[in-house]
């Protein structure tokens, strides 16, 4: 079962652009295939290159609800799938003291007392849905087993209520910063997309889209300097998000050119470690980077 209004790869690019996401051919092609084939999409890449933003853009372009499961160490089935409202159940049992346990059990294990979490919410939605499982690599390995079950058949079994089958498959995006290796079983169920740092031309287009007030020449200089910084042996390379932040910073400061003073004073916007800033100050030849 396919998802959304996408009719072709070009249609994906156009619709994503309409909502402010400039997709490369590789990104648009993989999104189209995932939507058409009904397959989960595993997106890997460094932080800040637009993995999460892609999910939001697909949801907006497809006029779908975005349901997000934020993964972290210790996230469990109750936080990901569902849990029962124990406080409300206890009140119900207390209020019905004269009932038998069988009578009370039938009532308290009903929809009224169920608390759906992101996975169950996405499965039960009857309208178009994008399910974002964000930073999957931060979750414990046990969560991968749960994802295999849910994403394999797009159904959830609640023992007290039965099996809930998706009436409309959500478009599923799993993101990973590759801090740990995901299982081969999970990878097999997904289409794979790696989003790295964009080519300079595409990054300029992104900056112009997000910060249209910035002078075009200065926008080009920003991207060239950021690419030069990425070539240095840094602990954390500047992301696209940080490129945009830097462009907004320069606009706020009223800068009209990039010179040594401006770069030195604003490096903390794009570099987040003191040793990276030190390497940039010694290793970045601004004249050479910005030479015609």
Write the layout of secondary structure elements.
Elements: H1 9-18, H2 25-37, E1 41-44, H3 51-61, E2 65-70, H4 77-80, E3 82-84, H5 86-95, H6 101-108, E4 114-116, H7 118-124, E5 129-134, H8 141-153, E6 155-158, E7 162-165, E8 171-176, H9 184-188, E9 191-194, H10 200-210, H11 216-230, H12 240-253, H13 260-270, H14 274-283, H15 286-289
Parallel strand pairs: 1-8, 1-9, 2-5, 5-8
Antiparallel strand pairs: 3-4, 6-7
Could you describe the 3D structure shown?
With 292 residues, this protein is an alpha/beta fold. It has 15 helices and nine strands. The strands form three sheets. A five-stranded parallel beta sheet has the order 2-5-8-1-9, sandwiched between helices. Strands 3-4 form a two-stranded antiparallel ribbon. A hairpin with a 3-residue loop joins strand 6 (155-158) and strand 7 (162-165). The N and C termini lie far apart (52 Å). The mean pLDDT is 91.
Provide a compact summary of the structure.
The protein is α/β, with parallel strands linked by helices. 50% of the residues lie in helices and 14% in strands. It contains 15 helices and nine strands.
Can you give keywords for this protein?
single chain, 292 residues, alpha/beta, 5-stranded parallel β-sheet, 15 helices, 14% strand
Biggest sheet architecture: 5 strands, parallel
What does the overall shape look like?
A: elongated
Number of strands: 9
Q: What portion of residues is helical?
A: 40-55%
Strand fraction band? 5-15%
Uncertain runs are none
